[in-house]
Specification:
Blueprint (H helix, E strand, L loop, with lengths): L3 H9 L8 E4 L6 E4 L1 H4 L9 H7 L4 E3 L3 H15 L6 E5 L2 E4 L11 H16 L5 E3 L3 H8 L7 E3 L5 H7 L10 H9 L5 H5 L3 H8 L1 H9 L16 E12 L2 H22 L3 E10 L4 E7 L7 H13 L7 E11 L22
Parallel strand pairs: 1-3, 6-7
Antiparallel strand pairs: 1-2, 4-5, 8-11, 9-10, 9-11
Helix pairs in contact: 4-5, 10-11, 12-13
Length: 351
Amino acid sequence: MDAFYASVEQHDQPELKGKPIAVGGEHRGVVAAASYEARKFGVRSAMSSKIAKEKCPHLIFVKPRFHRYKEISQKIREIFHEYTDLVEPLSLDEAYLDVTENKKNIESANEIAREIRQKIFEETGLTASAGISVNKFLAKVASDINKPNGQKTIHPTQILDFLEELPIEKFYGIGKVTANKMYSLQIFKGKDLKAKSMEELARLFGKSGIYYYNVVRGIHHGEVKPHRIQKSVGVEHTFWDDINEDEELYQKLKSLSEELESRLSKREIKGKTLTLKIKYKDFSQYTRSKTQEVYYENAEDFYETAQKLWELRPYNKAIRLLGLSLSNLNTEEKKQISVQLKIPFEEFEKE
């Protein structure tokens, strides 16, 4: 989806259309999503609200309504399932679809993408972009090429040429830090990356180096997994005013523990590892975890362990954010049977 949270707010509140908006808290917190109008000023998701406001003084902040985003996300997923049951959601606004065999027997993957995007617009009033290719990595990269409201096909005959000219920061899985390291090694495009041996990339980047070696050659064997395993469940709160007092802090921990229990009980999820996340006033961050042999059961368990983790903190600085998350969950992966089939593509076209 294109700037999903922000686009939902602009759709539901027409007076916001065409204006730079950020979904998130203005006084404290971070930007959850920015409209394309705000992005022109350099406003990005995960940016602090303070910095976002400095970049765009006339930025309009809108409080997030996650219940609304989930509602629309469900409608979109229902559209996906009209075409295939091999749908792997990555988040509320993004998913992989395997349409090798599809319910409507449409031969063109491009046509399927066009139909889905049109249906999403007709039923929600929102635009979506799509990437089409022979594996998840290439489809993901392609999905960003013609945003917003477009689609891009990387045809099998175009893969190697496309990847050789692709700027290294556009490769999915290469973040800002890794990109900067690659720049220092004179790696700017795919062809520069391709010139490095597997041994050299493994030495420089560890296991990720082997991933880079393969994907720059168009090799990625990840399957579309409809039953994606949830690896953690968490809650966190950014506070309007920094917290200095232990008594107030413990009240916040108790509230987080109760909220975490509520989220887990709805889905009958349990876990053995509890993690406390602390973000200080100066934006430095600290996490500490406690793993036990038996599953944590309830809010009381969370709170008791969270208190002990809090006592292990290295600094006595004012706190701006607290979070609790549970991992090492009792969910089990449902294995999928892999079948390799040919995907018919139309001639390469830019939309």
